[in-house]
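Same chain as my last thread, 188 residues:
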Amino acid sequence: MAPTYDSTTSASDVVNDLREYIQGKTILTTGVSPGTLGATFVETIARAYPAMLILAGRDIGKLQVTANTIVTAQPQTRVRLLQLSLDALADVRKSAAEVTSWNDVPSVDVLVNSAGIMATEFSVSKDGYESQLATNHLGHFLFTNLIIDKILASGSPRIVNISSDGHRLNPIRWADYNFEVCWSCLLD
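reply #2:
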C-alpha cells in the first residue's frame, strides 16, 4: 500500500519512503539558492544517497552555499554547479550545451524545474518577453528540450515542474502576454 501524506508529513518522512527512487540517481534541480524550496529539496534528498546532485541557478556564489550545506551534512554526496540564467534564451542554450558536453554525466535521471520569480517590477527579458513568462516558463521549456537526450538516456527518466497556482487568480493573457495593450483604455 502506498504511504499516505498530509500536512504533518515532513520532507524527511517522504525521502525515507522514496529512498529507493533517489539512491544512485543523478538529479538536476534549478532554483536552489539558500532558503528556497529548491534548496530545501536538494538538501533533504541528499540523505538518500543520490549519485550526483546538479545545482543550477544564476548566482554561482549562492549555489556554492547550498552545495556546502549539502556536503557538510552528507559528505558522500557528489555535487556539481551549473550557472543557468533562465531569463535569457542564449544563456539557457549555453548552459544546456554545457550539460550535454559532460561526458562524466551520461544521463540526468531527474530534472526538477524549481526556479522562478514572482511579483517583480515589470520588465522584459533580453529576448523581449515579460520577465516572469521568460524565467518561469520559456527558459525552463527551452532548457528541458535542449537536454532531453540526457534525460531520455536514463533508465527511468523524470521531469518535475514546480509552479504556483497564481494562474488561478487570473488567466494568462495570450493575446497580450507582454502587457503591451492598455486594457483599461479600451473600456473607455
